[in-house]
């Protein structure tokens, strides 16, 4: 009688292999879906601000059926440093980069509307660049390009205002001195002449 043991072993191995393949595919599927979703819903926005001012970096979810306790939001800068995290309905700042401490603000009243925008204050030239907002599990991404410009008032004063104003005051002062000299010198000279002509008392 021919033994069916080798055949049974082959079937067993085949079943285990199928389970292993299925498991690997199952584990890898979310990652592929995540990458595909990121590409399909990625948005780009450009905003402008001035040095020393503030700016709102927009980020909103289009999925309005998600609950806050199921949502994670991750804000990252151009160097992949943490700006602000919102995890399971709670602000999470333990990994926040020191550069953004007390400078990044959110709008908690807007969370329920899917608005996870942040506000950066006390802007510097170093803040210019790209910011990325990730929202999971809806797998949404918004890229914000921040352009930092010189403060118009400061640049105007530096370029045209302050030096010119100082020069104008010096000109005015010089003109006033010249006018006084023109008025005073003839009078002083005339009085000096009178005193010279008047004979001294004996």
TrEMBL record:
<keyword id="KW-0472">Membrane</keyword>
<keyword id="KW-0393">Immunoglobulin domain</keyword>
<dbReference type="GO" id="GO:0031295">
    <property type="term" value="P:T cell costimulation"/>
</dbReference>
<keyword id="KW-0675">Receptor</keyword>
<protein>
    <recommendedName>
        <fullName>Ig-like domain-containing protein</fullName>
    </recommendedName>
</protein>
<feature type="transmembrane region" description="Helical">
    <location>
        <begin position="169"/>
        <end position="190"/>
    </location>
</feature>
<keyword id="KW-1133">Transmembrane helix</keyword>
<feature type="transmembrane region" description="Helical">
    <location>
        <begin position="20"/>
        <end position="39"/>
    </location>
</feature>
<dbReference type="Pfam" id="PF07686">
    <property type="entry name" value="V-set"/>
</dbReference>
<dbReference type="InterPro" id="IPR013783">
    <property type="entry name" value="Ig-like_fold"/>
</dbReference>
<dbReference type="InterPro" id="IPR013106">
    <property type="entry name" value="Ig_V-set"/>
</dbReference>
<dbReference type="GO" id="GO:0006955">
    <property type="term" value="P:immune response"/>
</dbReference>
<dbReference type="GO" id="GO:0009897">
    <property type="term" value="C:external side of plasma membrane"/>
</dbReference>
<keyword id="KW-0812">Transmembrane</keyword>
<dbReference type="GO" id="GO:0042102">
    <property type="term" value="P:positive regulation of T cell proliferation"/>
</dbReference>
<dbReference type="InterPro" id="IPR007110">
    <property type="entry name" value="Ig-like_dom"/>
</dbReference>
<keyword id="KW-0325">Glycoprotein</keyword>
<dbReference type="InterPro" id="IPR036179">
    <property type="entry name" value="Ig-like_dom_sf"/>
</dbReference>
<dbReference type="InterPro" id="IPR051713">
    <property type="entry name" value="T-cell_Activation_Regulation"/>
</dbReference>
<keyword id="KW-0732">Signal</keyword>
<dbReference type="GO" id="GO:0007166">
    <property type="term" value="P:cell surface receptor signaling pathway"/>
</dbReference>
<dbReference type="GO" id="GO:0042130">
    <property type="term" value="P:negative regulation of T cell proliferation"/>
</dbReference>
<feature type="domain" description="Ig-like">
    <location>
        <begin position="30"/>
        <end position="145"/>
    </location>
</feature>
<dbReference type="InterPro" id="IPR003599">
    <property type="entry name" value="Ig_sub"/>
</dbReference>
<keyword id="KW-1003">Cell membrane</keyword>
<keyword id="KW-1015">Disulfide bond</keyword>
<dbReference type="GO" id="GO:0071222">
    <property type="term" value="P:cellular response to lipopolysaccharide"/>
</dbReference>
